[in-house]
């Protein structure tokens, strides 16, 4: 993506930037947590950070971590895009980067607890719901899974491809 680059955090400083953005979104915007959203899954998680190329500013983040009981199963979570940079494809870019990351870790399954209002976004990307909706910190969530054997195309690039085909 032209204006944004996704990199796995390599330093404590880069992890702290991700945690700051998460605090802004999940504590102050969504009021899902009172002070911070850290939990036991942050320890050892891979943080994928989306940086604005122009401003060296963190504009999105997502974490991926291994299931504690089933090591080949990975979870994605705490997906957050800075409010000023939403609906520009960064969320999708992060989800696709997370899929590539867990594939490189030889994951056999990739799951996420998705907030109700985001289920459609994930469905568009090929994720499927598993089980019933449940409440986490007062917010309805749905566990969703993506088939790691399928090649994933973003809605934007699918649209671009369709337009290119139609122009032929
Ligand atoms: C959810 C979130 C990460 C999406 O990030 P984003 O960068 O705005 O999403 P994108 O721009 O990549 O969205 C891509 C597509 O999904 C659509 N979309 C975005 N959010 C959506 C939603 N909640 N429901 C349905 N569609 C959505 C966009 O309109 C766009 O559609 P298009 O390709 O047809 O144009 C962002 O809104 C956010 O940080 N929200 C607050 C925290 C949160 O809810 N985290 C997710 C927890 S599961």
Q: What would you call the shape?
A: globular
Quick check: average pLDDT?
91
What is the fold-level CATH name, i.e. the topology? Aminopeptidase
* Helix percent band: 25-40%
Order of helices and strands: EHEEEHEHEEH
Instruction: Please indicate the count of domains.
Output: 1
Separate helix tally: 4
Task: Write up what this structure looks like.
It is built from four helices and seven strands. By secondary structure, it is α+β, with helices and mostly antiparallel strands. It has a single domain (4-167), classed as Gcn5-related N-acetyltransferase (GNAT) (Aminopeptidase, 3-Layer(aba) Sandwich), CATH 3.40.630.30. A hairpin with a 2-residue loop joins strand 6 and strand 7. The longest helix has 18 residues, at 12-29. The protein starts with a strand and ends with a helix. Coenzyme A binds at residues 25, 79-81, 86-92, 114-115, 117-118, 120-121, 155-156.
Short description:
The chain is built from four helices and seven strands, in the order E-H-E-E-E-H-E-H-E-E-H.
């Amino acid at each position: 993506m032209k204006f944004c680059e996704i990199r796995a955090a390599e330093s404590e400083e880069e992890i702290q930037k991700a945690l700051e953005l998460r605090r802004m979104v999940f504590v102050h915007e969504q009021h899902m947590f009172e002070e911070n959203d850290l939990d036991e899954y942050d320890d050892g998680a891979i943080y994928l950070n989306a940086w604005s190329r122009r401003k060296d500013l963190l504009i999105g983040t997502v974490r991926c971590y291994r299931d504690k009981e089933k090591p080949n199963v990975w979870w994605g979570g705490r997906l957050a895009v800075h409010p000023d940079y939403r609906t520009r494809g960064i969320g999708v870019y992060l989800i696709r980067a997370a899929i590539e990351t867990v594939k490189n870790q030889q994951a056999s399954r990739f799951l996420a607890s998705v907030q109700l209002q985001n289920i459609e976004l994930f469905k568009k990307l090929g994720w499927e719901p598993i089980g019933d909706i449940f409440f986490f910190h007062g917010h309805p969530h749905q566990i969703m899974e993506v088939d790691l054997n399928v090649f994933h195309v973003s809605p934007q690039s699918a649209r671009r491809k369709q337009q290119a085909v139609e122009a032929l």
